Structures are given as structure tokens and as C-alpha cells.
């Protein structure tokens, strides 16, 4: 696959687990950070994008990345700790998310409000039955 000449290539990726941020350096000198949550809710996967009707991904405030695998010289496959691992994050996708993240984030928050949904993780409950 050839890279679009107008999109810079990623030359370095660093996962900051504690802050749940992915830092990317592009060959044009730009460095950007994206939250793991942003990457998860805007995953380029068919599961998230559906067939032209994007799914609203909720409850991912604390999601983190468990693995990043290179795909050729044009993308990475990201595995999230919630098990999601479909969709390839091409350099173009990463650059577009990074350079438009404020607008995309506001749109995501607006969609959450409209759906009365939440970013907050679902609470794991340990249920014990007494005999």
C-alpha cells in the first residue's frame, strides 16, 4: 500500500500507560498525543464504523492499550485492554485524529449527551449469593 504524499509518516510511537496517552512523532517534525479513549472510540474498525452508520462507543474513559503491532510501513494494529483489536490505524488515520482531535472530541461528547450515555467505565460487581 502506498502512503498519500500529503500525509506525514509516523517515525516514532510511544505509549504512556499511566496517562493513557499515545505519543506519535511524524516525519514532518510534528509530535501529537492522543488519549487511548479517543483512539478506542474513533477506531477505524468495521465494528465501530458499521456500514456508514458509526456506533457510539461508551464507557471507555479508563481504556488502555495492551499492544501495538506494526503493519507494513503504513499502519499499526492496536489492541486495547477491553479486547478490541480490529481496525488498522494508518498514518493518515492517526494524523487526522491528532490534527482534528479537539473538534472530534467535542462531537463525541455531543453524541454522548444526545444519547444520555457515559464515558465512565461500567462498574464490575462481585455478586455473592448466600444460602
Automatic annotation (TrEMBL):
InterPro entries: GBBH-like_N, GBBH-like_N_sf. Gene3D superfamilies: 3.30.2020.30. The keyword Lipid biosynthesis does not apply. Signal peptide: none annotated. Keywords: Iron, Metal-binding. This is Gamma-butyrobetaine hydroxylase-like N-terminal domain-containing protein. The keyword Iron applies. It comes from Shewanella sairae. Transmembrane segments: none annotated. Residues 13-95 form the Gamma-butyrobetaine hydroxylase-like N-terminal domain. Pfam families: GBBH-like_N (PF06155).
Amino acid at each position: 500500500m502506498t502512503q498519500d504524499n500529503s500525509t506525514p509518516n509516523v517515525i516514532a510511537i510511544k505509549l504512556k500507560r499511566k496517562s493513557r496517552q499515545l505519543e506519535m512523532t511524524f516525519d514532518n517534525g510534528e509530535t501529537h498525543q492522543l488519549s487511548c479513549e479517543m483512539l478506542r472510540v474513533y477506531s477505524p474498525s468495521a465494528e465501530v464504523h458499521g456500514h456508514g452508520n458509526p456506533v457510539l462507543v461508551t464507557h471507555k474513559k479508563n481504556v488502555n492499550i495492551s499492544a501495538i503491532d506494526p503493519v507494513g510501513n503504513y499502519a499499526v494494529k492496536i489492541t486495547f485492554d477491553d479486547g478490541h483489536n480490529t481496525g488498522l490505524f494508518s498514518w493518515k488515520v492517526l494524523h487526522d485524529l491528532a490534527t482534528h482531535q479537539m473538534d472530534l472530541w467535542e462531537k463525541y461528547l455531543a453524541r454522548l449527551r444526545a444519547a444520555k450515555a457515559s464515558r465512565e467505565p461500567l462498574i464490575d460487581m462481585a455478586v455473592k449469593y448466600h444460602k
